[in-house]
């Protein structure tokens, strides 16, 4: 982490939404963005983790809001966007799609359909839902940045996590498509 006055980039006045922001990469993104001056909103299904991130951001002198939510449903993404637009009427400037799960470590032949579906519902469909909802304001504002977190598993096969690898590969393809479609807008 950089000291506030030596950050290689400044995001004063910017608003950043980080999904899966309660721990790990999402937490690190929230802290780095806050340290660079952005106001952050973090989401996760676990409220207690989010509150710790909010406390850490505030300790850095930043501003943060926690929104505990399940992004695996259409209602979750809609609710998130409603809460977000009431908090930030102009929408987010930065979206970091980090929310993901990989609850089962199974060989492909043992992978159950419901497990496959759950991983895709959270990892890929959650990313699509949030991006559609939050991205609409970015497109209207003709400004914004979307960062989709994938995995080495999206380009290099890792054993016993086929559904996770495939979901992250799909996000990588989605990201490339969005870059082409949204760059002109």
UniProtKB/TrEMBL annotation:
InterPro entries: NAD(P)-bd_dom_sf, Sc_DH/Rdtase_CS, SDR, SDR_fam. One of its GO terms (biological process) is monocarboxylic acid metabolic process. Signal peptide: none annotated. Transmembrane segments: none annotated. CDD domains: SDR_c. Pfam families: adh_short. Belongs to the short-chain dehydrogenases/reductases (SDR) family. PANTHER family: 3-OXOACYL-(ACYL-CARRIER-PROTEIN) REDUCTASE. This is Uncharacterized protein. The lineage of its organism: unclassified sequences, metagenomes, ecological metagenomes.
